[in-house]
Amino acid sequence: MLFNPIHLVNEKQLAFASLFLAILGLAIILLFTKGMGAKEVAISGLESNMGGYVEISGFVSSFRVSKENVLLTLCSGECASVVIFKSVASGMTNPNPYLITKGDWLTVRGQVQEYNGEPEVVVLQPGDVERG
Predict the structure, then answer these.
(1) Which end of the chain is less enclosed by CB atoms within 10 A, N or C?
(2) Are residues 23 and 71 in the same domain?
(3) pLDDT attached to residue 75
């Protein structure tokens, strides 16, 4: 007969151990996700953060809508392109991405990607654009 360690543990102990490990796993996930917020960078630092999730702030120097995608240029010393694709823009209410105007001060979070050899910030979630 083979040794089976399951027979040595009663159901209450097994339930307690399962609960303990589940809570421990959730605590570890929480600790790791706390450090995964956007990294605040100057616009001049976008190129060195390619692929990263960043936060930049600046004044809107240009704004246009193309096929319901919002394309804007954000400046604070230097300038950067920001893209809010239709799928994200349609879920935004405050601010309404289609009512952004030249001169607005925005804080934008998104992923830095290369487009035509230049870094641009792609907004990933509706809550990643704040006015003021």
Answers:
(1) N
(2) no
(3) 95
